[in-house]
Specification:
30 helices, alpha+beta, globular, disordered C terminus
Length: 823
């Protein structure tokens, strides 16, 4: 007995060392892939990162550092709610790193760290499924280095949320096996993390899986593992209630904005199925960028461009076949979870999506069907790991089905050797033949690139077949087999998806453009507006200091909405996932107007400068600045060069101004007709939806003829605006800020009603005199949500402490008896 103790310790130490090495290995893979971004000299800037995610994070981090709650964003879209939009992820706990490190490092580290989280959570899930260490590593590496996950680094909310999917599923279904309600609590916390990360669609899909397996546990669990139906739904209710309570601080403002946004009524089927996965793109699971979308921007945006890469390689699919050749409920369930999301991802290219769109709740509020592919990739990752264990077990037991499948893979490998030989020895002739047959640009990637990728696919598949054959014919140790498969998998996915991200020097991102410098030189309070045609002007090249053409440099010259946020530039235009519906309609009126001066909307919205590539010919707009985005070497004809221009709006109205007359309109079409007409004078008439009650209370003796008319903004903060207004006679104070629930107006300390004015903005009726007016944003959704979330978290922490104390007390009698016995 004494001799077994050191042996047991050595076994435990060996297992502990193995676990540590696996954790360090997964961390090493994620850091190695993004090694050039760890020092903070470079910054991730792929697509949405540069305009959606970086500026909003800079804004709210600075606001918190200045002890201000970032409830409202006054800089974009004529002011919009911030916390209600999930993308900034203000309450995501891991974002505490922004207060510990310089922003650029923190931003990069968050992205890199979530690939490690995706890997380690998948590995833990596999171990709870009783998989081997090798199977866990295979599943983890496949998931974290999949083309899908590497693509969504630029769709940050999706990446942050998807990384938590394995852990949430593990924690929720652990309650089925243990009958311990604490796992429902842990699962609710994990779901809250997913939601705070910003990926609402990921949360929604994962909840559907939870609901499905709670209702039909036989799809996955053995009979003895299924709790009674009442107990299952009790666990589900506990999970959902706790999730709603924990996430209330973000959930309530989010639901309020959803209800007020254009998504409240859902998308049309055409809009909802934008960026559907074309069936032909399935080949890109095996050959990256087969059709050369990266070389042809127009083709890239016209097709599915939500994912930059789909590459998974052949190894995960081949290993998964060993899992699926076994017949059982678990295989059927996994196949269903893999095939259904793949069909959904095809969107408009399959008739099945219409059924989900019309009959599944909330599906009509989701765009970009290709996003559903994350679930298929996750299931393939899990099944490839489980397939390895089935393979290993089949070899050990000499299972005929496993052996036959190995021979099939070997036969394919032999065919692959023949094909590879032909490609190598007749490389030039093959390329020429493919070119004649039309398999080159413009419909496909460069022939040389595609041939290189095909050769790599063949080589990897041949090597896998060789490893499997040797494992059958020769007594190969499990360690050698696992090392060979893991090594091939890492090599294939690492280099197959290498370089699918953009980065620029951090200093270049934060450096002002010449157009920004001009706008910032004006110290008055105003907004800018970027014309829609300027936003779409993607074809204008610009050279950075390093000599490379950089999209970010051009976008900063255009001040694409988002870039001005870091610099405190107010923008009447903007981009947003959730935009208040009425303001979105205003933006549509401006965009659809034939000319910049066709309406007076820009005047009303305090737009002083218009950024435009097309020339604006109007006496109301004066050309103030012009910059060429071309380098001097590229300019051949200076008279015909394309430039970015800044026009000053000569009729720009102040942010807040007084209006004497008003008019009542009741229908949206009436607002549209009036606002789109040049006859509408915002300085003379304010458009209301109801009679102003304050006017009936006005007394004649309120007139103060000796007072001059003045509107002065004293303070302009994120969540409040302070003004001093003097007026000799009663008028409306119009404010070109979005009308939104939660805003309160106080005139001389007394609350005053805010009217929805000019369809989407604010107005307050003022009596004659000198007044101090304060607008404060105090949404009930945030206050109730904060109270609910705080109470829930404090309650859970208290409950955990009580359980720990009780557990410790229960052990005390035993400790005393043991101590007395020893004495």
């Amino acid at each position: 007995m004494r001799g077994s103790i050191p042996s047991d310790n050595r076994i435990k130490n060996s297992l502990c060392v193995r676990k540590i090495l696996i954790v360090l290995g997964l961390l090493g893979i994620s850091t190695a892939y993004f090694y050039d971004l760890l020092k903070g000299d470079y910054l991730f800037t792929e697509r949405d990162l540069s305009v959606f995610f970086i500026p909003s994070r800079i804004f709210w981090v600075e606001a918190v550092k200045n002890f201000s709650l970032p409830l409202w964003n006054p800089y974009l879209l004529s002011s919009q709610p911030l916390i209600a939009t999930l993308q900034p992820a203000v309450f995501y706990p891991l974002h505490v790193i922004y207060f510990l490190l310089p922003f650029d490092k923190a931003f990069n580290y968050i992205i890199v760290f979530h690939y490690f989280l995706a890997g380690i959570f998948t590995y833990i899930l596999m171990k709870k499924l009783k998989a081997s260490d090798t199977a866990g590593i295979i599943a983890a590496v496949t998931f974290m280095l999949s083309g899908y996950l590497l693509s969504v680094h630029n769709l940050l909310s999706t990446l942050l949320s998807v990384a938590w999917v394995p852990l949430l599923l593990l924690l929720y279904f652990a309650v089925f096996l243990t009958r311990d309600i604490k796992y429902s609590i842990f699962a609710a916390v994990a779901a809250g993390m997913m939601f705070f990360a910003g990926g609402a669609i990921v949360v929604y899909v994962t909840f559907l899986i939870i609901l499905l397996l709670t209702s039909f546990p036989g799809l996955f669990f053995q009979k003895e593992q299924r709790p009674p139906i009442k107990l299952r739904f009790f666990y589900l209710v506990v999970f959902m209630v706790l999730f709603l309570c924990i996430s209330a601080i973000q959930l309530l403002p989010f639901l309020e904005l959803v209800n007020l946004s254009g998504r409240a009524d859902g998308f049309s089927y055409t809009d909802a199925t934008i960026w559907s996965l074309h069936p032909k793109d399935i080949i890109q699971f095996f050959i990256p960028d087969f059709f050369g979308y990266q070389l042809r921007p127009n083709e890239y945006w016209n097709n599915q461009s939500w994912l930059k890469s789909l590459y998974l390689g052949s190894i995960p699919f081949l290993l998964s076949t060993f899992f699926f050749i076994k017949r059982g409920g678990r295989q059927i369930f996994f196949a269903m979870l893999m095939i259904i999301p793949l069909i959904l991802a095809m969107g408009k290219h399959t008739p099945f999506y219409a059924l989900f769109f019309h009959y599944v709740p909330f599906m009509d509020k989701i765009r970009y069907p290709v996003r559903f592919l994350f679930l298929s990739v996750f299931v393939i990752s899990i099944s490839s790991g489980l397939g390895y264990d089935y393979l290993k077990e089949g070899i050990k037991k000499r299972d005929n089905a496993v052996k036959n499948l190995i021979y099939v893979i070997l036969a394919l490998g032999v065919a692959g050797v023949l094909l590879l030989s032909l490609l190598v020895f007749f490389d030039g002739q093959t390329a020429h033949l493919l070119k004649i047959k039309g398999f080159g640009p413009p419909h496909y990637n460069d022939i040389g690139i595609n041939l290189h990728n095909i050769k790599r696919l063949l080589i990897i598949s041949i090597l896998l077949g060789l490893v499997l054959w040797v494992s059958v014919r020769v007594k190969m140790s499990n360690r050698l087999l696992s090392s060979g498969i893991i090594g091939l998998l890492i090599f294939d996915l690492f280099f197959g998806n290498l370089g699918f991200y953009d980065r620029i020097p951090a200093g270049d991102y934060h450096k002002n453009s010449s157009v920004m410098d001009f706008v910032l030189s004006d110290r008055t309070l105003f907004r800018i507006f970027v014309t829609p045609l300027t936003m779409r002007a993607r074809s204008i090249p610009v050279k950075s200091g390093s000599g490379h053409i950089e999209r970010v440099v051009l976008d900063k010259e255009k001040i694409v909405p988002g870039y001005g946020l870091e610099r405190g530039i107010f923008d009447a235009s903007g981009l947003g996932v959730l935009v208040e519906r009425r303001f979105s309609n205003i933006s549509t009126l401006i965009a659809s107007a034939p000319k910049a001066d066709s309406t007076n909307l820009l005047d009303m919205m305090n737009v002083k400068y218009v950024i435009s590539v097309p020339e604006i010919k109007s006496p109301r707009f004066n050309l103030e600045w012009e910059v060429s985005p071309f380098s001097t070497e590229e300019i051949k004809d200076t008279n015909s060069r394309t430039t970015i221009k800044i026009y000053r709006n000569l009729d720009c109205q102040p942010r807040a101004f007084l209006v004497d007359g008003y008019r009542i309109l009741s229908k949206e079409d009436e607002f549209k007709d009036v606002l789109s007409s040049r006859e509408f004078k915002p300085k003379e008439t304010v458009l209301l939806e109801e009679e102003a009650e304050d006017i009936n209370k006005l007394r004649d003796d309120f007139n103060c003829k000796d007072i001059g008319e003045e509107v002065k903004i004293l303070e302009y903060r994120n969540n409040s605006i302070l003004l001093r207004v003097s007026l000799p006679e009663a008028k409306f104070l119009f404010l070109s800020e979005l009308y939104y629930p939660g805003w309160k107006a106080y005139v001389d300390g007394k609350e005053k009603k805010i009217y929805r004015a000019n369809y989407a903005f604010r107005a307050v009726f003022l009596n004659p005199g000198i007044h101090q007016i304060e607008f404060i944003y105090r949404p009930w959704t945030f206050r109730l949500g904060m109270t609910t979330s705080a109470a829930s978290i404090i309650g859970l922490i208290g409950l955990g402490c009580m359980m720990k104390i009780q557990k410790y007390r229960n052990k005390m009698p035993g400790l005393r008896i043991e101590k007395k016995y020893k004495e």
